[in-house]
Amino acid sequence: MSRHAHQHTKAPRSRIMAGGLAGLGLYTVGALYPPEELRLLYPISAPPPIADHNSPEAIEHTQNLEAALQSLPLLQAVREAPDANEWYETRPYANTAPERRANHFTGGALKGPSKLAISPLVRSKNDETEAWIIVHVGRGLCGHEGIIHGGLLATLLDESLGREALVNLPEKVGVTATLEISYRAPTKADQFIVIKTKLDELKGRKAWVSGTVEDVNGKVLVQAKAMFVQPKYAALLNKKGISEALGERLPATTPPAADGKAMV
């Protein structure tokens, strides 16, 4: 065999080895940092939600989430912003009696570890034209593994946009007339999300509002707009429970407590 022929037979082996090493490297990198598409197609199963809401594990889980909420850089930044005194904070459902909250969807049925473990924290403008609602969505609220159910996000938007509308309506009571939602990106489980709402128009018994769901880095996940209508019989209703559920600001305010109690 000639020298040239011998060199010709060795070259493919070196290329195969190099290709094999490159492939192994790509596999390792892909395993450590998989593309977003692969995470969606082949999610890693998470442990089930904590069943006993009164267990030490559940209590610790809730306390850790509340501490994480209070230390969020985003929340600290807006609390220290130059216009901070133009906003107030409150916690929906915090002053609602347990027996009244038990049959409420988000304040009762979906309350608990790995679901809506802690009460949302609302930062609302004093003139009620804008609000930020910070919510933690747990892994027990998924449609696809690791991805929050789109219907749950619609519910959170309905309630958040509803709050923006109701606090501006004359009798502070209203029902959803229309709700339009556009999903922009998957919302991952086990994270804090920020629902930003604003009042677009108020005319008599009707309020038009819009908002977004974002992650804490400002990435828009969902966009929505809605119209709410105040019923004609609203003046006859007992509105105390509605105000408690909304977390509407009352005349006297105090800082939010570490256990998630209200700023009301």
Automatic annotation (TrEMBL):
Residues 146-220 form the Thioesterase domain. One of its GO terms (molecular function) is isomerase activity. Keywords: Isomerase. It comes from the Eukaryota. SUPFAM superfamilies: Thioesterase/thiol ester dehydrase-isomerase. PANTHER family: UPF0644 PROTEIN PB2B4.06. This is Thioesterase/thiol ester dehydrase-isomerase. It comes from Cylindrobasidium torrendii FP15055 ss-10. The lineage of its organism: Eukaryota, Fungi, Dikarya, Basidiomycota, Agaricomycotina.
